[in-house]
Amino acid sequence: MKRSWICAAAVVFQRMAGARRVSSIRTSVVLILFVGIVLLFSQTIRSQTIKQRSHDVKNGERLYKSGCITCHGADGRGAPETLTEFQRPDTFPDFTRCDQTTPEPNSVWKDVILHGGPARGFSQIMPAFGELLTSDQIDDLITYLRSFCRNNHWARGELNLPLAQVTEKAFPEDEEVLTAAANTHGAPGVSTHIIHEQRFGMHNQLEVDVPFLFQDEKHTWYGGVGDATLGIKREMWSSLRTGSILSLFGGVIVPSGNRQRGFGSGTTTFETFASFGQLFPTNTFIQFQAGADLPRHTDIAPQTAFWRTAIGQSFAADHGLGRLWTPMVEFVADRDLVDRAKNNWDVVPQMQVTISRRQHIRASLGFRKPFTNVAGRQSQVVFYILWDWGDGKLTEGW
Predict the structure, then answer these.
(1) Which pTM was predicted?
(2) Which of 46, 76, 272, 315 is in Cβ range 3.0-4.6 Å of 148 for a Cys bridge?
């Protein structure tokens, strides 16, 4: 099995290396810009780390025992219900559950401690401590709360970077995503995807992607299911100190779409890619994705290599605790691995915004514009709505 993957990778890189030089001046400019971004990134990552004040865990323990232990218990699992005067809500935390606590960034914890449970759509039994604790004291308290999770190999929620329209994230998550793309000129067409992502274990995620395609042919609309994807993503390495995370993906694209209508390739395709994310101290981030689609029957569909880059910056009111706005731009490229093939480059400016107070419902709107080889390639309005169901139901957190 390992040798077969190595051979497939060798074929991909051999064909890429042996491809003819692209003559388009615009393509050359884009390639130069892309290489420049990669080089700048590689130099920056060597020196950048997620810089934080040195938190005092002992002070955090003192604060916890003086103000939190009555409800949350000495061990972080919650005080015995016979000793409390309230009924626990479904969202009551167990701080020892690493799968529950590590996906949440510190900003979520700080918002709840500072403003109370209702600030994030949680129960009102969680009071606000903003008038009793300083910002530094809350940071110390959060550091102590983090110590209840005894396993430090879980990727932290700060590395769950905002989802781009095309570039895949490296963080394993529990999300439902509904995407849509509509052609802005030429033959009318709309494609939607229902994507289910479910985390299992410490590093793994199952992904199921079912597309639905609609197109107008001579004033008659046709629709149907496209080729569905089933795959597994595994986080290989992450570090909050450096703000970095790396994952690998392997999956199968099944020929469930109608090839005659243009809804499918007509052959089983194996997909593999690497995804890397880098977060900087200013909440600027860069995400990379590179991989290949390897169909079983290359006489029906060619093998394709793709590479994508998303660059973004997140902004939030209330010292980073309020509604999150994230403008991004993506550079998206793919190339058929055949002789005389050209690189197809697209640029995708976009904006993501959190909708719910809990920030588990997000939406993004963007525009995908072909930059090279524009003949026959459509510009599209792209949109998605994301539900992080690990943080609660659709009806919760508003």
Answers:
(1) 0.84
(2) 76
